[in-house]
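In this supplementary section we document a worked example of the pipeline. Step one takes a protein sequence of length 253 as its only input; no multiple sequence alignment statistics are reported here. Step two produces a three-dimensional model, which step three serialises into structure tokens for compact storage. The input and output of this example are shown verbatim.
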Amino acid sequence: MSNENSDNFLDQQREYFEAADETHFAWQTGATTFAARERSLLRDLLRESASPILEVGAGEGGNLFHLVEQYPGGKNCFGLDAFLPKLQFATTKVEGALWTAADAGAQPFADNTFATVLIRDVLHHLEDPFSTLEESLRVLRPGGTFVLMEPNAHNPLIRLQMALVKAERGAARSTESWLREQLSRLPLEGVHLESAVPFPLDRVVFHPQFGWPALAGNNWLQKGLDGIETAVGKALGPARWSYWTVRATKSAK
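The serialised model returned by step three reads:
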């Protein structure tokens, strides 16, 4: 990436993500039905994982909001993000978590600190995603759980998101082969990569910026969208579902 392109990429990320997105947090944590689905998705991804847990790229804290009850205790949930305004907002909304403002590629934690590391929807926003993966494995204990979730570049809704939001266009590299190549360079074992969330129309229809969030409480509409998601998901096939998820264990070697 040339210096000019690099600067443009980073400027787009800062412009879009630096400020706390209070509306998105409210949608992720409080929208009828959608918040429950978020909680279920995250808790399934983090099933049987131990604490302390670090979320890299924690943003406003929406993910940890759904997870803190899963890791009870005063110092069991940590969130790291590059943008201080997001973390300042998170401290007012998520009880039971601790926050650190830092670069994900240069994390201020000692080696082998955490039992679990979560990275969700972060890599495609980074100029150098592998440095963040390396750092996240450095601070993870041997035998600890590594969890990753990234959009699938081949999903139609993800392509639509990239078209509408410039800061999301890094997702174009987020393919199964690209992820497997990154993971192969890390000290991981038992890597389980699979597709998830076939065709989440509710993320579009109820989206606070592009959709109609007031409709989120309509059970009949939700059932209709669920039926469409199931049908379209079967037609697309798992290789084109909207997200890739990874669960793995850090090697003890």
